[in-house]
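Our preliminary data section would be incomplete without showing what the modeling component actually yields. Below, a chain of 378 amino acids is followed by its predicted structure, encoded as tokens that our downstream tools consume directly.
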Amino acid sequence: MNRLLKSLFALALVAGFHQARAADPGITPTSILIGQSAAFSGPAMELGTEMRAGALAYFQAINAAGGINGRKIELRSLDDGYEPDRAAANTKKLIDDGVFLLFGYVGTPTSNASKPIFTASRVPFVGPFTGAESLRNPLNRYIFNIRASYFDETDKIVAQMTGQTLDKIAVFYQNDDYGKAGLAGVQRAMDKRNLKIVATGTVERNTVDVAAAVATIGKADPQAVVMISAYKSVAAFIKAMRAAGYNPQFMNVSFVGSKALASEAGPDGRGVGITQVVPFPWNVATPVVKDYQAQYTASTKKEDYSFTSLEGFISAKVLVEGLRRTGPDLTREKFIAAMENMRDVDVGGYLITFTPTSHSGSRFVELTVIGKDERFLR
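Predicted structure:
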């Protein structure tokens, strides 16, 4: 009898040991800890602030309704100032502190700097605010991109411009991974149409020194300029170009931060085009926009809706859907498997599909223009 009891006790210890090992970091019976590194200071801070605010609005609504299988989401956010070294340090800290996954990073250079760290640690990286190809190809099984790519956005821009017989196209870009990713997209779209980029000009990240770019691009007298930078430098470039007497059609990809650009550019921003990778934040006929407006206002007590905070909201909604589908036995590997089985999942008029061979959830792109009084037109 003693021998039997000892055997049962030993089996119970082994079972308990395996159960303890099965629980991944960041998971308790009542909580899920997720980590974020983004710009909450410096020239790109509105991007990080808005992305986080949109995500928090959804997480708070989920938590108020009891969470996911009884677990509430805790978002831990660290400031990287849109600098790669700080983002890498933040990523290491968040993983060392035991987050379950990483979410809502802002920027290509910061995401690229973090990639080797979360990949080596096998930590999922969900919904980064970037369309860079470096996070898509080759496939990294830990990265889940929710938005369309910069290749999708720049192809839409070039198609629109050439459709209006504006084929003298220049590129103003940030001299880093983000700017070069956008430049590659424009180049690809131009090659497809047997066209050449007429001029390029650069600006350093987190600066507004655009004089050299204005001189180089202005000399080529382009009909259109595709801009791949953050809102402060883009606004500075537009103002300087107009002041120098150049008035091409200015076009941006979504990362610029639409609301921040409209505010920063003021009257000079009127007529500037921007591709968007989420629905129009003021169109409540789209179910996800209606939910976003209600929950964002409840969370922030404001009605300052934007494309960036809507992207944060949608990204949070997709993440929560993945967590729900994983079930109560929440591990990183099971979460990845659940995400890879999402096919045409409708999160409110916005469809998401992931497969084991594609972690690009959406290809949605539409064009908007800054109109009068910093308002947006579709």
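Confidence is low (pLDDT under 50) at residues 13-21. The two ends are 79 Å apart (CA to CA). Preliminary results of this kind motivate Aim 1 of the renewal.
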